[in-house]
TrEMBL record:
The keyword Lipoprotein does not apply. The keyword Phosphoprotein does not apply. Keywords: Transferase. Residues 204-326 form the 6-hydroxymethylpterin diphosphokinase MptE-like domain. It comes from Campylobacter coli. This is Motility associated factor glycosyltransferase family protein. GO terms for molecular function: transferase activity.
Amino acid sequence: MTILEKNIQALLSGVNEPLGNKLLNFIQNKTCSRFNIDENLNIYDKTHNVFMYENLEEELNFFYQSILEKTPRYPFVCIYGIGNALLIKNLAKHYKHLFVFESEIELFILALSTIDLSEELKVYKVVLFDCVAKDLEIQIAMIFDQQSILEYLSLYEMFISSHYYLKYYETSILSLNELCIKSASVAIRNADITCFLPLLTHGQFLQNIPSMLESIPFQRILNERKNKFENAIVVSAGPSLAKQLPLLKAYQDKAVIFCADGALSMLEKEGIVPDYVLNIDFKDCHAMKFFQNKENLKQSIIALECATHPNVARSLNAENCMIVLRNKALYQRFN
């Protein structure tokens, strides 16, 4: 078995099957046309007519030392550019995880044909990301959401593996860096280490219990309206909504319309009456402005999340309002 085959087999073992299949498909149907690698493991870029490393040994040593000095005792490091994989192999000894991002399929092929990373890949010591994969953001989010990574996201920094990448892939690096920062911010926000949001929403849920007892039972709506319509349309707020309104108006009697509260005002202007208006805001300042025209709401059922702000629940007419419990054990005990 060749080095490339061992590396692809490691990817296909469940580590990164999409990338493994992409590499397998490439070697079966194509050959490297833009890049090649010489006996010294220096990579030549035929498009720009340059070698990746001006002085291979010096440059690899420079980035090796530079990254180590900046990341003492870091559990993980993010690097753009697999290069010839020598730097990746050497750095992997010092970290629990090495996240390597690469945009060029040919560079994946050349690197994984040269250096055996199969053991590092199998235990997630080296994690490869295909930067042109459609689900890249999801892959990053899944990694950053892991507890062992989440705790150290404040250490995040995107490093490069050679000067070549900075010169020819600067735009890609900046774009990837923004994506990683965004994913890290979302992961930290969702973790809510202060517990402020869970305590706030639970308190609001308790305040909403009287309104819940006076409003329409959710189960009754399910029993009475289930299977009454074949089609449903979900309307959310967004810049493209205005273009869809004429079509929505033409079909409003042929489907059940579920409308996010943020889109309600636009539907009202067009004379479109949604069957259900949905709200999940835990702040009243956002939600109250959506329900100002209560006369138009009489034909709709307003579905509130059980932890929505109590002011919103109290301000709406219980006759056409229902408060829906979350599908979690904590809330289902009240069902």
